[in-house]
Structures are given as C-alpha cells and as structure tokens.
C-alpha cells in the first residue's frame, strides 16, 4: 500500500511538472520595436512589433490613450508565426485633429489560443504640427551685393534641427537646434551674379518638417545709366516742357527701384535748382528699364547755363556713375 502511494505521488508530481513545462513552453514574447519609449510622434506613426514563441495566429492590439484628455483609440492586427515561432508586424496610427497634442500612453497586447504574452507599455508625445518660420531674412525676391546674415525665428517647442543651404549646398556653421537662426553667407566665391536660392529647413522631434525657400539675386555690378534725352549742350526753349529720358541697364529690369533714380537740374557749380518729376518707369527688355520725367524750363536769377545730373542706386546698393550733361537756354 505504501508503495502504491509513493508511486501515485511520483506520478502526480510528474504530471504537474509536465503541465508546468508545457505552460512555460507556450509562453510567447512580445517586443515593441517602434516607437521607442519617450519618442515624439507625428500625424502618421507606425507601431512595429516582433513576436517570438508563437504557434498559431496572434492578435496584437495597441490601445492609445491621451494623458491630457483621456481620448483613446485601439488598433488591431493579426500575424501568423513561422515554423520557428517568429513573426513581425505593424499598425499605423494616424490621429486626426480631434486628438490633442501632448503625452500619450500606448499599451500593446498580444493574444493567442493556449499562449500568453506580457503586455508592453510605452509613452510618446504627439506633435502633428509642422514648424513655422517668421521674421526671416533676406526677404524673397531681394537683391544683395555681398555677405549677408540669414536669420529666422522658429515657432516650434520640439526642434530637432534646422539647416540653412544656398542652392542646396551647405554653408559653414549652418545647423542648430535653438529657435533662432543666424548664419553668415558670404557669396564671394560665386562667380556669376544672378538668382540664388536660400533654404531654411526645420525638422522637429516628431519628424514634422518645413522649408522656407527664399529667392535672392546676387548683383555686384553697378547700373549703367544713359541720358537719352536731352542731348549734351542742347538748347532748351525757356518756359517749355522738357522731357527727360533715361535708360538704366542692370542685372534685370526690376533691379532698380524707380524711387532711387534722382534727376536734378543744377547750376554748373552743383547747386540744386529743381528736381525732375517722374512720369513713368517701365521695362525695355530683360535688363533695361526706361525712366521718363519732365520739367518746365523756368529758372530764376538770370541763369542761362545749367546741367542735368542723374544719380542711380540699385536694390543691391550698387551706386551707378553719376551722369551729367550741360544744357543752356536758346532756340
């Protein structure tokens, strides 16, 4: 009888041991590979995972909950392990604007008939908004003639990196992660004047990205100014309306602001008598503009000889050679 009891006890212990072993053998492993705990996520986030020790189809769920509002959603997918019990899968979270920005908890669970998996919990920060740039310089369609500083302010609390390029090439010291951009650009090594493209690219920790593209014109040559009318030493009829025609050639027909064209009637000693009023300013061709003005030929003080003086500065700050032609009253 004692032998029978000892045999029965051993049998029971062996059976329990086999059950424990069987249970241990069917304990699977769930590993969340992305996003990492503490990561920033944007408007589209892939939640990837790996299964080990699986047997049949495994159902994987991700329950996502806002710590701020309690808003929640659940993603579900199924994977089938291979002959080694391994499987990989992913679920995509694309939160709408109804989900508030901020901290979230993601609890990932796996279920399989006859198998168990420990859940995984990670915390992430939702940031759907692209970085915004403001107060940037230079302004679009501006003109420069030498070194300038590229500046901008960034409205983004989670900056990863900003980068400044010119014509898609890096500048020295052109990256940072603070909200203020300040990069020196020296175009001295650029051989040809013309349009250049400055880009300020900003990425945040959630991989949202924005780029401010700025077109500037490098112009290091002074305008060429020609007084087409009146002619040198031309006789001006007293009291008549005199048209003044000036041709301005530069890197483009828009590179000179008409306000910066100054045409004056002066004494031969350089004293200003009056300024010529502008009537029109228009394009002749891609590199030439026409300035037209007029003035009534009345000069007090018995002055019969005088001069027309024209000064021009282009938008890049290049100063043209002053043009002067002598004139006199006559018929």
What would you note in describing this structure?
The structure is a single chain. The chain has 331 residues and is mainly β. The chain has one helix at residues 2-25; strands at residues 29-34, 39-41, 45-52, 58-66, 72-79, 87-93, 102-111, 120-126, 132-137, 142-144, 148-155, 159-166, 169-176, 180-185, 194-204, 209-218, 224-229, 235-236, 241-249, 261-266, 272-275, 277-285, 288-296, 305-312, 323-329. A hairpin with an 8-residue loop joins strand 7 and strand 8.
Describe the structure concisely for a colleague:
This protein is mostly beta strands. It contains one helix and 25 strands.
First-last Cα distance: 152 Å
Cα shape: rod-shaped
Strand coverage percent: over 45%
Strand tally: 25
- Any low-confidence stretches, pLDDT <50, length ≥5? 1-25
Range of helix content = under 10%
Order of strands in the sheet with most strands: 2-8-7-4-5
Radius of gyration: 39 Å
Please summarize the sheet with the most strands: 5 strands, mixed
- Reading the helices and strands in chain order gives HEEEEEEEEEEEEEEEEEEEEEEEEE
Mean pLDDT: 92
Alpha plus pi helix count: 1
Structural class: mainly beta
């Amino acid at each position: 009888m004692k032998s029978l009891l000892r045999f029965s006890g051993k049998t029971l212990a062996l059976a329990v041991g086999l059950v424990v072993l069987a249970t241990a053998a069917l304990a699977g492993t769930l590993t969340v590979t992305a996003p990492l705990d503490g990561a920033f996520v944007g408007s589209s986030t892939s939640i990837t995972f790996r299964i080990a020790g699986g047997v049949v189809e495994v159902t994987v769920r991700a329950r996502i909950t806002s710590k701020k509002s309690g808003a929640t959603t659940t993603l579900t997918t199924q994977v089938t392990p291979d002959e080694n019990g391994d499987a990989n899968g992913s679920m995509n979270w694309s939160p709408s604007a109804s989900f508030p920005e901020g901290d979230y908890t993601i609890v990932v669970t796996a279920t399989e008939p006859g198998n168990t998996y420990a859940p995984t919990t990670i915390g992430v920060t939702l940031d759907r908004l692209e970085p915004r740039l403001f107060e940037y310089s230079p302004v679009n369609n501006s003109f420069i003639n030498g070194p300038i500083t590229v500046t901008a302010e960034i409205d983004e609390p989670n900056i990863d990196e900003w980068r400044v390029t010119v014509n898609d090439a890096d500048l020295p010291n052109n990256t940072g992660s603070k909200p203020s951009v300040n990069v020196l650009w020296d175009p001295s090594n650029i051989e040809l004047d013309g349009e250049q493209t400055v880009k300020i690219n900003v990425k945040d920790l959630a991989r949202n990205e924005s780029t401010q593209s700025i077109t500037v014109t490098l112009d290091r040559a002074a305008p060429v100014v020609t007084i087409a009318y009146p002619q040198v030493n031309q006789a001006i009829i007293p009291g008549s309306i005199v048209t003044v025609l000036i041709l301005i050639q530069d890197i483009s027909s828009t590179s000179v602001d008409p306000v910066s064209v100054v045409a004056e009637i002066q004494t031969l000693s350089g004293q200003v008598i009056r300024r010529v009023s502008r009537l029109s300013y228009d394009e002749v061709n891609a590199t030439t503009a026409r300035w037209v003005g007029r003035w009534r030929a009345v000069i007090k003080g018995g002055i019969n000889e005088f001069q027309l003086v024209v000064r021009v500065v282009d938008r890049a700050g290049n100063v043209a050679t002053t043009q002067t032609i002598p004139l006199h009253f006559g018929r």
